[in-house]
Amino acid sequence: MRLAFGCDPNAEELKQKLMKVCSESGHEVTDLGGRDPIYANTAIRLGEYVASGKADRGVLLCGTGLGMSIAANKVKGVYAALLTDSYSARRAVTSNNSNVACLGAFTLGEMLAEELLSIWLDCRFERGCPSQPKVDRYHEYDISR
Q1: Is 123 part of the annotated catalytic residue set?
Q2: Which helix (H) or strand (E) holds 20?
Q3: Which of 7, 22, 62, 102 is catalytic?
Q4: Model-level pTM greater than 0.90?
């Protein structure tokens, strides 16, 4: 899978570790930066990269992951989800068709962040599931704006 990564300065170390793990797992990894203290710039850059099809999915990190998820979701075609636990990581994709994962460097340990990202990457959206009409609706809205 083609993955794009971005972060703010608070999460550079965790981003590097996660990129290494993903690369070693066979994913194609692109680093879109982590030095800009205005995390919205990185989130928008990564969101546009994913929405354009240059990457299959994106991963954003900041202190909590909250700011990145808010900023990334402003980009048309981005469906960013904050990953905090294994159930949510799974449902972010299987029920909600998330294409960007957001993680908090201050709120998750390295091992949990790796686990959540692995779960998220292993999941696929379940077409025809009960959530399909809900996902269709926000995709329709996204296309219309």
Answers
A1: no
A2: helix 12-24
A3: 62
A4: yes
